[in-house]
Amino acid sequence: MVALMLPACFPVNKNQGERLYVDHCSSCHGGEGQGLARLIPPLAGADYLALHRAELPCLLRNGQKGHIVVNGISYNNVMPGEKGMSPAQLTNLLNYIENSWGNKSKPRTIREVEEQLQACR
Amino acid sequence: MLKRLFLLPVLAASLFTSCTEPGSDTAARLPILGERDVRPRADGGPADTIFATVPAFKLTDQSGKVITNQTFAGKAYIADFFFATCPGICPKMQAELLKVYAKYGQDPRLAFLSHTIDPAHDTIPVLRDYADRLGMGAAKNWYFATTGAKGEPTAKDSVFQLARAYYTAAEPDKQAPGGFAHNGTFALVDDQGHIRGLYDSLNEQEVARLMTELPILLDEIKSRQPAVARQ
């Protein structure tokens, strides 16, 4: 367990969540997690994050297609999955999203994310 | 991940034209980009320079209306290329165009033309829904257009060809997000079909340049219109 958590603490992985966000998410969800009109849901202040916390690792891995309701607004678009991201990367990415732009959430551990990934279809 | 193709020729074209643009004694004018042809005159007078124009096109917009070059008579327009399910650069690109719309969208001399490069998926109802979700459902001067309203098998080729005319690279690419590689160029076209500016929508400074150059072109168009029509 300790060995699994260590990589997230090494300097090479510092700000990895932010870098992953910039490279993989920001062109759609925006530099500030603001989304785009009713085409792309926001991440900043999104109720979906807390309501579906345990499902988010699978959502990132498998992508999302079809209707999704965020802050009472229905979105219908395609988000590609990130099949290549490791549990550690998903953890850092989610911790970044869930604690940026005013978002606040309990930090996830890699262990927790790995367990949640078991549930992916 | 963000594929930007063909930027070199665009750069070359802008360098070429900015140096050869004849001096103007009034305010700064935007260059005319692209190929030009010099034709000797039969009477031996100074040769005529023929500037390239956007080729003839016939598209269908989100309300099912046919739009052609004539739709933009007397107006400037900004053209870009997108697709509704694009997970790559399109949201960023359209977000930038929304900013331009917010500032200049009410100007009667300006229109917006977003072409889908995925005509097989982006049917008229899909385009209407896209426009609506972008908050442009009621806008009369932002066209979301397809070359394949009737499922024409040539639709994809037509739009890729059209994209090249606007100095935008677009092509199918299995490696690219969403299945298409394209770049986020905004092409600024004048009331006579000449391309007057090319801007990389993914670059903040380029979008800022569009914001400052656009009113120069709008003024030029105003000066061409008869005084009575200027109201």
UniProtKB/TrEMBL annotation, chain B:
Q: Which residues form a coiled coil?
A: none
The record's annotation in PANTHER family points to: ELECTRON TRANSPORT PROTIN SCO1/SENC FAMILY MEMBER, LINALOOL DEHYDRATASE_ISOMERASE DOMAIN-CONTAINING PROTEIN
Q: Which GO terms describe its molecular function?
A: metal ion binding
Superkingdom per UniProt: Bacteria
Name of the protein this chain belongs to = Electron transporter SenC
Q: Which InterPro entries match?
A: SCO1/SenC (IPR003782), Thioredoxin-like_sf (IPR036249), Thioredoxin_domain (IPR013766)
- The residues the entry assigns to the signal sequence are 1-19
Q: Which Pfam families match?
A: SCO1-SenC
- Domain Thioredoxin as annotated: residue spans: 48-216
What the record says about family reads: Belongs to the SCO1/2 family.
Q: List the disulfide bonds.
A: 86-90
What keywords are annotated for this sequence in UniProt? Copper, Disulfide bond, Metal-binding, Signal
Give binding positions for Cu cation.
Answer: 86, 90, 182
